[in-house]
């Protein structure tokens, strides 16, 4: 059974059809990269996977069952802009995820449970290369380090699916390369399934095992919102030739 099953899925906001007729299965362990023109519904798609938005119609299953109605620990997300808490130290930012999950009412742990959470958070910080910055505050971190922290925050909850919304879009090229190595390493070591939106076709091609292109194929100039985006390419990256990338580059305004 696929981890995610999507069949004939539509998503509209009022009269604005954003996505139409999406059909795809995502298998556990895949690294799907998603590209497409601005406004074609990529973030909306991630939000549906996260449980923050719902399809208007169609089949949408996680592990063969209807998607849980709220974001849960099985799914974690990292956005382009850092989503960390400025008033908490790096370590506390990562611990918070564990604390909120284990102590839903107080959001705090004590004694042994707190020590254990601290240990797990430190292990995660080591994995993302931030152990030396555990006692710093987010404002003292560079952009790349803040994204490492966001990734640690998501991964400490041990999600099955990691959703990444242009996580490296705001970073300098050199730092991006480090982040690429980090995310590939974490993906492999944690048996993650990743769905990542990017505006960089080559980044999508480099990181993913599967490249999905979202684009509108139907247009009505008088009613620009009447039709939504579909999946126009769904290609296993290992089998993608440079000529296919050039074709996508020329036909889709990413
Ligand atoms: N909560 C909402 N209410 C109404 N319309 C929305 C909402 N969220 C998104 N939209 C609309 O859905 C469409 C798709 O938006 P979305 O952010 O998913 O696109 P995107 O492909 O991620 O764009 P970008 O690449 O610029 O980030 C847009 O027309 C947007 O205005």
Automatic annotation (TrEMBL):
Q: What residues form the membrane-spanning segments? A: none
Q: What is this protein called?
A: ABC transporter ATP-binding protein
Print the organism lineage: Bacteria, Pseudomonadati, Campylobacterota, Epsilonproteobacteria, Campylobacterales
Q: Which GO terms describe its molecular function?
A: ATP binding
Q: Which Pfam families does UniProt cross-reference here?
A: ABC_tran
The ABC transporter domain is annotated at 4-241
Q: Which Gene3D superfamilies match?
A: P-loop containing nucleotide triphosphate hydrolases
SMART domains under this entry? AAA
Recite the UniProt keywords alphabetically.
Answer: ATP-binding, Nucleotide-binding, Transport
Please give the InterPro entries that the UniProt record associates with this protein: AAA+_ATPase, ABC_SmlMolc_Importer, ABC_transporter-like_ATP-bd, ABC_transporter-like_CS, P-loop_NTPase
